Amino acid sequence: xxxxxxxxxxxxxxxxxxxxxxxxxxxxxxxxxxxxxxxxxxxxxxxxxxxxxxxxxxxxxxxxxxxxxxxxxxxxxxxxxxxxxxxxxxxxxxxxxxxxxxxxxxxxxxxxxxxxxxxxxxxxxxxxxxxxxxxxxxxxxxxxxxxxxxxxxxxxxxxxxxxxxxxxxxxxxxxxxxxxxxxxxxxxxxxxxxxxxxxxxxxxxxxxxxxxxxxxxxxxxxxxxxxxxxxxxxxxxxxxx
Length: 241
Known about the structure:
The protein is of the alpha+beta class and 241 residues long. It is built from five helices and eleven strands, in the order αααβαβββββαβββββ. It has one domain.
């Protein structure tokens, strides 16, 4: 009878420390790189505030802010009344009046006009450019969204808007979707908004309604200018036919 010897599994050799160390180092390096990129992006989004927005953030605390906000309301009411009467009309609205109204009257009396999570809108007026800035979010997870719109009068009652720049913090955002979102906001207000292509860029063309009042008077905007610190408009209202 043959004797059978018990078979024992040959123990596998433990991996060498060097073989484990390299994948761990690579994974750690990749994780560190991802964390650094995400951290840098978070800082760029949340910690960057445009200079124009910073300079106008305290518009409600400046001397004469209450009076400036009231002047804007008076000018808008007067412009609405003038546009409904036959004859020429004109208006000049200053940047200080706009920002005083945004800082004081908007949150006090018209807070529902802003979407949830959007606060402290501010405006800068420069040559043909309107710079808009708002804070979106809450606390440390908030960021300033800014946009520069180049605005020109294309023809009577037709305004052309082009996005010069748009950012969340310091991070650029696509301009096309922004124009489409702006067009969607304008259409419920009775404005005809259309996206067109020109000179290799998208342009938003807004057509203003002409008929105003029960007599359907025709109101025409004949001049529109964005100057440093001021918005100028002029036009004429004619009796309906």
